[in-house]
TrEMBL record:
Residues 25-351 form the PBP domain. The lineage of its organism: unclassified sequences, metagenomes, ecological metagenomes. The keyword Transmembrane helix does not apply. It comes from freshwater metagenome. GO terms for biological process: phosphate ion transmembrane transport. Transmembrane segments: none annotated. GO terms for molecular function: phosphate ion binding. InterPro entries: ABC_phos-bd_PstS, PBP_domain, Phosphate-bind_PstS. This is Unannotated protein. Belongs to the PstS family.
Length: 382
């Protein structure tokens, strides 16, 4: 079925004229930007080379660096976890929704019981208002009735959607959760660098818990922090580290800590993954199905940018699912580079990458109407 699924995507790609003929010589592409999609991009490096004879290198340095490099045309493609709207953006650049995945809340608690947190509680923890693990808000989140959702899936494990594009729910279950929380100080680890992950994380906090997280989203965590991050009560307890790898490593070495990063950083750093309590009251894990259910409620404009519906009442939606965009040019001076970038984007979106390599790493498949919109953006590369 994987072959037939790929053939289906290929037929869509052909409809948009995306598979250009193989160039007379292989092309070596240079990419840079967001660390969020880096593991998937690297995992698909060898399969892409095998399928196309092209190669690429990708410097995972953060969305801010990718955006700056795109301004100066340093390299051939750039990744950004948020829409790039600066006045310095070149007019010929477009956004391609290329990689989907959840931002996970990772923690270093000793208990193996699954932790679950509401948006207001997450905002309280990361704003410094909730400082101990046995705070009443965390206790209430973890000692309650919990709704879990089971969706209909196809043979490839993807969501089956109705005519409106909504995921089809097979059943819901309800059970009581119990969690004994320790009387320990919470150590908060945040991204200190300019980061699309931080921009999406703070957007979730400001939209989902505005009474607690009172400042607007920002790529720099300190600039979105609703208070004085250097207050005496935060010093040594709320600390920063650069990159997803950096925050995860620091949290892994710090008992009773919490941070935000991609799911795949949890295992390597012996961290646990929290569920989020969504607006429908369901406790949802940061997995492919939850992200797909959340993205199904997003809207997309002519630029390719997505607007997420943080208030969606979709029962199984994981409300911290995001898309990482590829910034690509519609006017490459070297047309062989343009053709290779187009092939690269099409390959990353295909099941050969997004499903066969991505799902094991915690990424989600872009499919349905969003896939069609992504491929229509790819078609503009030239």
């Amino acid at each position: 079925m994987r072959v037939s699924k790929f053939a289906k995507v290929a037929s869509v790609a052909l409809a948009f004229g995306l598979f250009a003929s193989t160039p007379a010589h292989a092309v070596d592409l240079q990419g840079s930007g967001a660390s969020f999609p880096a593991l998937l991009i690297e995992a698909c490096k060898a399969p892409f080379a095998s399928a196309t004879d092209h190669s690429f290198t990708y410097a995972s340095s953060g969305s801010g660096t990718g955006q700056a490099n795109s301004d100066k045309a340093i390299g051939d493609f750039w990744m950004s976890d948020g829409p790039y709207t600066a006045s310095t953006k070149r007019a010929s650049l477009i956004h391609v929704p290329l990689v989907a995945a959840p931002i996970a809340i990772l923690h270093n608690l000793p208990s193996k019981a699954p932790l679950q947190l509401s948006a207001s509680t997450v905002a309280g923890i990361f704003s410094g208002k909730i400082t101990r693990w046995n705070d009443p808000a965390i206790v209430a989140d973890n000692n309650r009735s919990v709704t879990n959702v089971v969706y209909r899936k196809d043979k490839n494990g993807n969501l089956v959607k109705n005519a409106k594009g909504d995921p089809i729910v097979l059943r819901t279950t309800t059970k009581k959760s119990f969690y004994t929380l320790p009387n320990q100080k919470i150590s908060v680890v945040y991204r200190s660098d300019s980061s699309g992950t931080t921009e999406n994380f703070t957007a979730y906090l400001s939209k989902s818990a505005p009474a607690v997280w009172t400042k607007a989203k920002n790529k720099v965590f300190k600039d979105s922090f609703p208070g004085n991050i250097n207050d005496m009560s935060n010093l040594g307890r709320v600390v920063g580290a650069s990159s997803s790898n950096g925050v995860s490593q620091l949290a892994g070495k710090t008992p009773y800590s919490i941070t935000y990063a991609e799911v795949n950083y949890a295992t390597a750093n012996k961290l646990k993954i929290a569920n989020l309590i969504n607006p429908a009251g369901s406790s949802v894990a940061p997995d492919s199905l939850g992200v797909s259910a959340f993205l199904a409620s997003a809207s997309q404009d002519a630029n390719g940018w997505l607007t997420y519906d943080y208030d969606t009442k979709e029962k199984g939606a994981y409300p911290l699912g995001i898309v990482s965009y590829m910034l690509a040019d519609t006017k490459y001076p070297d047309k062989s580079k343009a053709a290779a970038v187009k092939e690269f984007a099409t390959f990353i979106l295909s099941p050969k990458c997004s499903q066969q390599a991505g799902e094991e790493l915690g990424f989600s498949v872009i499919d349905g109407e969003l896939l069609k919109k992504s491929l229509s953006q790819v078609a503009k590369i030239g």
